[in-house]
Amino acid sequence: MLVRKLVLISALLLQGMAESHANEPHPPSSNEQTWIELTSGETLKGTVTAVYDSALYFDSVHFGDIRIRLSKIRRMQGQGNFEVTTDGRRTLVGTLDVNGDTVTVTTDDEQFEYSRSQLLSVTPSFQRERDRWTGDVRAGLNVRQGNTNIVEGNLATTLTRRTPTARGVIDYLAQVNETEGERVADSHRLNVSSDRFTGTRFFWRPISVQYYQDRLQNIAHQGTIDAGVGYILADSDRVDWDIQVGAGVNYLRNVSVADGESLSETSPVGTLGSDLSIEVTPTIDYELDIAMSFLNEESGRYQHHIVTGLSTDLIGNLDFDVSIIWDRTERPQRQQDGTLPEKDDLWVIFGLGYEF
């Protein structure tokens, strides 16, 4: 009798272990897609598009392109090489396995283990240059006909190139408003910057270039070149925030000026910026970007460009955006006819955005 009970208990234990093992997701073989297990127990197969800003961008076999916070991932294993940079600024290229808080990088020669907190950046090791780029395009259009004829449009695009040790960003913003056949707003702003990471919260910005044109603000051309440093205030699952400070030179050419004034001016410039991104909910993001310039009196004394807004996921990579833009020049230059442009321009923009 005792022997029969022991045999029965052993059989039940073996059955339970077999069922438990059967319920565990199996890592794919080397010729299959990347496999991930979420903290909820769900599993997905697909291809890693990118890993940055504490999120995994994943092309799922069943769900298409999705974005998953790294904190939601319990395990990840699959094919392909990654460029992994640790807080000691060592960059490794190899396969990447994530199991809980342990990250294992296997190179051709050796295997390394780190905790998640030690990772500075993880980037898929792409064969093509274009795979290092991400971006988004946002556009809005308002057309009104009748007692008042208005055509108003805006276009904004951001392109970002990322590697484990560097980041390059190109931003472009255009705003146009034509009311009753008269152009009442026409501005264009282009920003190009390059950052180099140091392995700490500090990063270098060896060059930043800005071009701005707003003829109705009496700015025919304005160009700024500066360099500086930045500091990462927050880099968490839901909040990313960094600030930058720099110094350089600014060139301004006005559309027209009062008699006796110079049409163009070159000035030293000090810059101060802040970029804040908050994941309010899994489908709603908030952003606040501030760029300030400190100039001499003839160049406007002080300028800022502030963009804040919410982005809501719609379908796939398509978003609905609500943005507020505030541009200010503390000392605008009076035009030849005596007109003094307003110091502030304020825009409220509704539009659609597409991420790629």
Description:
This protein has 356 residues and is mainly beta. The protein folds into two domains: 28-125, no CATH class; 131-355, Beta Barrel (Porin). Helices cover 6% and strands 65% of the residues. It has one helix and 22 strands. The radius of gyration is 27 Å and the shape is globular. The N and C termini lie far apart (68 Å). Mean pLDDT is 83; it is low at 5-14, 16-25 and 27-31.
Total number of strands: 22
How many helices? Answer: 1
Measured on Cα atoms, how large is the radius of gyration?
27 Å
CATH fold-level name of the largest domain: Porin
Overall helicity: under 10%
Q: What is the average of the pLDDT values?
A: 83
Low-confidence stretches: 5-14, 16-25, 27-31
Quickly list its features.
single chain; 356 residues; mainly beta; Porin; 2 domains; twelve-stranded antiparallel β-barrel; 1 helix
How is the topology of this model organized?
Elements: H1 2-23, E1 34-38, E2 43-52, E3 55-60, E4 64-69, E5 73-77, E6 82-86, E7 91-99, E8 102-106, E9 111-115, E10 119-124, E11 133-144, E12 150-162, E13 166-179, E14 182-197, E15 202-214, E16 219-235, E17 239-254, E18 264-281, E19 284-294, E20 302-315, E21 318-329, E22 344-355
Antiparallel strand pairs: 1-2, 1-5, 2-3, 3-4, 5-7, 6-7, 6-10, 7-8, 8-9, 11-12, 11-22, 12-13, 13-14, 14-15, 15-16, 16-17, 17-18, 18-19, 19-20, 20-21, 21-22
